[in-house]
Design goal:
Layout: E1 4-7, H1 16-23, H2 41-54, E2 65-75, E3 80-88, E4 91-94, E5 98-102, E6 108-113, H3 130-143, E7 151-162, E8 169-179, E9 185-193, E10 199-204, E11 207-208, E12 212-214, E13 220-222, E14 226-228, E15 231-233, E16 235-236, E17 242-246, E18 253-255, E19 258-261, E20 266-267, E21 269-270, E22 274-275, H4 283-305, E23 318-323, E24 330-333, E25 338-342, H5 355-369, H6 377-398, E26 408-409, E27 424-425, H7 448-451, H8 453-464, E28 467-471, E29 474-478, H9 491-505, H10 512-527, H11 532-542
Parallel strand pairs: 4-7, 12-22, 17-23, 23-25
Antiparallel strand pairs: 1-2, 2-3, 3-4, 3-5, 5-6, 7-8, 8-9, 9-10, 11-24, 12-13, 14-15, 15-21, 16-17, 17-20, 18-19, 24-25, 26-27, 28-29
Helix pairs in contact: 1-2, 4-5, 4-6, 5-6, 6-8, 6-9, 8-9, 8-11, 9-10, 10-11
Length: 547
Amino acid sequence: MSRIRHVRGSRPATAGIAATAAALLGTVLAPTSHAADGPTSADALGHAAAVLADRADALGLTAAQDTEVRDVIVDDDGTQHVRYDRTYRELPVLGGDFVLHLAPDGDFRGADRATEAEVSLPTVTPKLSAPKAADLAANALRAANPGELLKKLTAKPQLVVDALHGTPKLAWRTNAAAMDPVGNPVARTVLTDAGTGARIDAWDTIETAAGDGESLYGGKVPLETTSSGSSYQLKDPTRGATYTGDAENQTDLCFLGICLVRAPSTLFTDADNHWGTGSAGDRASAAVDAQYGTDVTWDYYKDVHGRSGIAGDGKGSYNRVHYGNKYNNAFWDDSCFCMTYGDGDGSTFGPLVSLDVAGHEMSHGVTSSTAALTYSGESGGLNEATSDIFGTLVEWHAGNATDPGDYLIGEKVVRSGFGRDALRYMDKPSRDGSSADCWSTAVGDLDVHYSSGIANHFAYLLAEGSGARTVGGVRYSSPTCDGSSVSGIGRDKLGDVWYRALTVYMTSSTDYAGARTATLSAAGDLYGTDSAEYAAVGAAWSAVSVG
């Protein structure tokens, strides 16, 4: 397994590529330490700055464009990967992100770009006004919630350059948000052509799924807490001060910078450092599950991938439980850097705080901090699948006998009224009645939770192989789309390949064909292009009709 190190940074915009190259050395917020004989993150940024200056034309960078460092990875062998976002005349470029790959001595090895299209516009003055774009997005949110009277609806347009959908064009990215009739949040991002007013794309903003303590789903679990006077806080000082609070059945409306109402996150406290009773009647029990899920997800990324915290910067997130009124969902929200969990309605879902749901939601944050896969089309399916894959691997890594690892998603939170025993199935995704097992040209039109099926199916085949088998006491039967027989390489190698592909090669516009290329590149880095692992990655993708 290749161990990797992370640093993230940002800087004020500067004019032109020359200023970009000169300014890059100042972008590091928290450089990591490295062996004295190997390159540091600062070295990587210096090397990348030189590459940007030398290869601006090849990378499609002009004097009207600027770049900002999103992430830096330095491999143990000194290979460096620097990820950038791009602006054009100070406007964000959707699909303008790219990754530079550098040799240990800083020589250029290659680049992965979200788009190869030339970013050049005749004007950045929109014909469509911002208020009109806001109205169109508000109407789109209403249309996505038919028959519901939305409350406190607001829409915030931002002018961008859209390079994700063909020839780059000026567009309005409008984040619309509101509350449904029972006070739960709904939100949608609408991308509108700023010249014609035509809708380019739209997607949901909320990325869903879904001492010691007695949890609802994991039995008695260990917790690291903080002593405060004569009581204890459900706050873990060993994992970036992650904590869990009570939303008190309230809701908020604060997504992507739109903040009208913020539900509370009242920190849980306890007198004897023994939390919860294992019953939903005790509000601390769901908090135990959420905090434990955060702990084991943190540990998975740290122990397995060397990543400290969701953003790789050692900082913790926080949880809110008991959110909304019988809220049948859980979600990650970048604007608060937090996970939020509903209690479920009791008939179809219980509290959505199980291990795999926690791992799923936190992994949305990892994706946001790295490849930032767009939450629509095939990229959106890969975004959701990434969370399912890592949520599953978190569950296996935890080794909890009460909630053992499996390839079922959300099996602990579903209730009899849901009609099946899990939200999704990785061995044969179509078992849920909606997800795709095999790639086709229609996949990009599916809801992202259903188009994720192809990558989930790939992940199961890569880990376990095709055919019928029993794993951890659960029976699975995974067919292939081409009638082939696939041999698995194990969960650990699946995780290593997918993590490296996500953090080093994937970009915001990666589709299924791109995911095949990214994972093959990752497998080649980790095991060699002549290895059984490399061949298995290719075979597993072919088995789901990709490539």
